[in-house]
Amino acid sequence: MDFELKSLSPTQAAALSVDALLVLVPDAKPAKPSGDALSDLVASATRQGDLEVGLGKQLACYRPAGVKAARVVLVRSGDGAAVSVRKAVSAGMAALKQPGVKKIGLVLSLLDAGNDSVRAAVSACAEATYVYTTTKPSAKARALQQVTVGVSDAAAVRDGFDVGRAQVTGVEFAKEWANRPANHATPTMLAEAARKLGRKPGIKTEVLGPKQVEALGMGSFLAVAKGSAEPLRFIVMHYSGAAKSSAPVVLVGKGITFDTGGISIKPAPEMDEMKFDMGGAASVLGTFAALAELKPAINVVGLIPSCENMPDGLAVKPGDVVTSMSGQTIEILNTDAEGRLILCDALTYASRFKPRSVVDIATLTGACVIALGGVRSGLFSTRDDLAQALQQAGETAQDPCWRLPLDDEYGEGLKSNFADMGNVAGRAGGAITAAKFLQKFTADLPWAHLDIAGTAWKSGAAKGSTGRPVPLLLQYLIDQAAVLAAAGQAAPAGKAHRAARPAKA
Ligand code: BES
Ligand code: MN
Ligand code: ZN
């Protein structure tokens, strides 16, 4: 989908040559009707009470006088804050999901839209019209092709618009790969997608196979992959937006392309949803796709351990003890707690980059779904400043998370008589004990963990990937680029990277 940003007065919006206009109308009374067709329409609809006050309330009009677009939907945007704009656009777009609507004008000119509101409008518009078609070509592809975002002053909100566009690219990339069934998204195919991203300027991709992973001593990762006929892949990506000497942020994404549970097999109902168990990996790939577009001045490394978790004659068995890359031994008491087993070796690998921070992203525990549901991702960190930065990024990007504790007492259940640790503790506090397991592999790294089991996809009639937490990750990286810039760590000479500035500013 093509987005463009334009300064549009109400008169110019009325003259737009599009199939439909979605006009956001703030709840507050307009100063005075300005005499143009669109403002008059809004004023009289408001006066008559046909357009009620209240976020999301709408009025659909057909061929109103003086407006070029045949369809005009007026929608209330409440107080005009970014959260409200997102809700208003979602509500309004539902009324414009028609095959004949290919070009629209998304008119924000009547509000005081800042960077965050423009970003929210762009992402909500894409969200409302996304359609998965790869293995269902009969599904009607997205009708909407072009969106002109009209604001009163385009230059003032260009940054927010650019971030919004890059975010849409990233979220849709993540959705595509997470939505694909496991036979259309094997570790090898995921690595291919990463390689293809590696052809974009600023991105490099390296893919390791079983032999190289064995040579690295990743005994824990190898153990999970053993039961599958599909060979594992370890994907290493680099985005270079800053000077070589600038320490990177490392993103580690869980890439289980299908989780049967292994020998500790899962029950049949809803097992198909375990194709989404590479949602963390998809979010890392999506974030890289967004970085390639936005080009913030920061270095980022992406690490994706990817394999299937299958039951088999060769599969790892409950009670087996393996040696991780860190040298620590692990008693695999439950083969369904496989995410932590592939992540721990990737976290050990991460330390070689001397990272600024390491953030792993994983559909790790059912317990996190119980704790936080589908609204907020679980956030764990050993550093308050990192936790705060991620939490804030989530709020800014409307992709929120919530911090959970890491007291040492939570780790006690991981003790084993046969290895340095077991891979599971009891049922209580399962999201936290999983994080405690990962913490054993982070040594002195500034580390955070996002458990996205509840937020990466939706079940039921709306079953599908959400593309989360790409918005949070992208915002965190933009914010960190701004911190670097403020500290005087400039972009490499000769490269014209965009000035890093948080969308908020
Ligand atoms: N991929 C699952 C976590 C999951 C479960 C995500 C349900 C989304 C919905 C993970 O590999 C898993 O199976 N975790 C186990 C851990 C347990 C065996 C300690 C779980 O949560 O049940
Ligand atoms: Mn599992
Ligand atoms: Zn899993």
Short note summarizing the structure:
The protein is of the alpha/beta class. The chain contains 14 helices and 20 strands.
Overview of this protein structure:
The protein has 505 residues and is an alpha/beta fold. The protein is built from 14 helices and 20 strands. It has helices at residues 10-14, 37-48, 82-94, 115-129, 158-179, 187-197, 210-215, 219-225, 279-294, 339-350, 366-372, 384-396, 430-439, 470-486, and strands at 2-7, 20-25, 58-62, 71-76, 103-107, 146-151, 203-208, 233-240, 249-253, 255-259, 299-309, 321-323, 329-331, 357-362, 377-381, 401-403, 421-422, 447-451, 457-458, 464-465. The strands form four sheets. Strands 7, 8, 9, 10, 11, 14, 15, 16 and 18 form a nine-stranded mixed sheet that branches. Strand 19 and strand 20 form a beta hairpin. Helix 10 (339-350) runs parallel beside helix 13 (430-439). Bound molecules: ligand BES, manganese (II) ion and zinc ion (ZN). The site of manganese (II) ion (MN) has 5 residues, from loops.
Could you give the topology of this structure?
Blueprint: E1 2-7, H1 10-14, E2 20-25, H2 37-48, E3 58-62, E4 71-76, H3 82-94, E5 103-107, H4 115-129, E6 146-151, H5 158-179, H6 187-197, E7 203-208, H7 210-215, H8 219-225, E8 233-240, E9 249-253, E10 255-259, H9 279-294, E11 299-309, E12 321-323, E13 329-331, H10 339-350, E14 357-362, H11 366-372, E15 377-381, H12 384-396, E16 401-403, E17 421-422, H13 430-439, E18 447-451, E19 457-458, E20 464-465, H14 470-486
Parallel strand pairs: 1-6, 2-4, 2-5, 5-6, 9-11, 9-14, 10-11, 13-17, 14-18, 15-16
Antiparallel strand pairs: 3-4, 7-8, 8-11, 12-13, 15-18, 19-20
The structure holds ligand BES, manganese (II) ion and zinc ion.
